[in-house]
From TrEMBL:
Taxonomic superkingdom: Bacteria
Large polyvalent protein associated domain segment(s): 8-90
InterPro entries: LPD25
Name of the protein in its database record: Large polyvalent protein associated domain-containing protein
Residues forming coiled coils: 121-160
Keywords, comma-separated and alphabetical: Coiled coil
Length: 291
């Protein structure tokens, strides 16, 4: 049986702006443009494109192409040869009984009689492989740069915190410190798809020293008066008393009313090391008030 030669491609619709609905393309031109569209999706995404290919004998093949790299389609020829090769490799397997159904065998029979240039398909796949490799290289480089910047940021913070702690003049009678922190959702380090939600601290205020280690809410509210940003937490109608006095709990702490992992929080930090109380005090704005 003479091979069927693809001549034109009718585009029913596409997610790519490179193709317009009802466009008619010469087959070779379509394949070239389809490859360009696919190479624009090197990270696993694809543009659904619905087409009808007309052959020299006026027969037609209608299908959907997922134009993209990796396991997606690079064009009509790549699509057909991928389907054919996958069938040849797997149709004898017991779990692949669906491949031996009549409509599947009919499809493979049609593809075997299409005149498709496997050499061009191999070139397209090699080009896609190069694009994917380059994208991965850039992603890895960006990741290394992010890690480097994060490590440098951590070191800089540690140095500033150490200098801050060394500058503190903590009274001998102080047994704890009352700290206010404001946190917000960190979109850069969070990943909702995997259920990872991170916070970042945008402000820390050292409100007051305390003579005891008991977590008393009246004392926390009084300390809130020491800074204009936390004054509102002194008002019981604008704040909540959180009690987590259980194993792995955070103890007693004060928050704003709408606090849910993010927002204002006031807590007491005990000095566990009497010889070096300052190491329990985080870097922040120091309010010079003494209890």
């Amino acid at each position: 049986m003479k091979k069927r030669i693809p001549k034109t491609v009718f585009v029913h619709g596409s997610e790519s702006r490179q193709f317009q609905t009802n466009d008619i393309w010469d087959f070779e031109d379509f394949e070239q443009k389809a490859l360009e569209v696919a190479l624009d999706n090197p990270e696993g995404g694809y543009d659904k494109t619905f087409i009808t290919v007309t052959f020299h004998d006026d027969s037609e093949h209608q299908c959907r192409l997922d134009l993209g790299c990796n396991v997606n389609d690079l064009g009509f020829s790549d699509h057909c040869l991928s389907v054919h090769d996958y069938h040849q490799q797997n149709h004898d397997k017991p779990e692949m009984a669906w491949m031996r159904e009549d409509h599947q065998l009919e499809l493979i029979g049609l593809i075997e009689h299409y005149q498709l240039d496997r050499a061009l398909v191999q070139q397209a796949r090699a080009k896609a492989g190069e694009v994917i490799k380059e994208v991965k290289r850039k992603q890895e480089e960006e990741q290394r740069q992010k890690i480097k910047e994060r490590e440098e940021s951590i070191r800089a913070h540690q140095q500033k915190e150490q200098a801050f702690q060394e500058s503190l003049n903590i009274p001998e009678w102080a047994q704890a410190v009352i700290i206010a922190t404001k946190t917000e959702y960190d979109s850069e380090t969070s990943c909702p798809h995997t259920g990872v939600y991170e916070s970042k601290t945008i402000k820390t205020i050292i409100l007051a020293w305390s003579k005891h280690t008991q977590q008393r809410f009246p004392e926390m509210r009084k300390a809130c008066l020491n800074h204009p940003d936390t004054v509102f937490l002194h008002d019981k109608t604008q704040s909540k008393e959180q009690r987590e006095n259980y194993s792995m709990g955070a103890g007693n702490y004060l928050t704003e009313n709408n606090y849910l992992y993010h927002g204002w929080k006031v807590r007491k930090q005990r000095f566990w090391d009497e010889e070096n109380k300052a190491k329990s005090v985080p870097l922040g704005e120091l309010v010079i008030k003494y209890k």
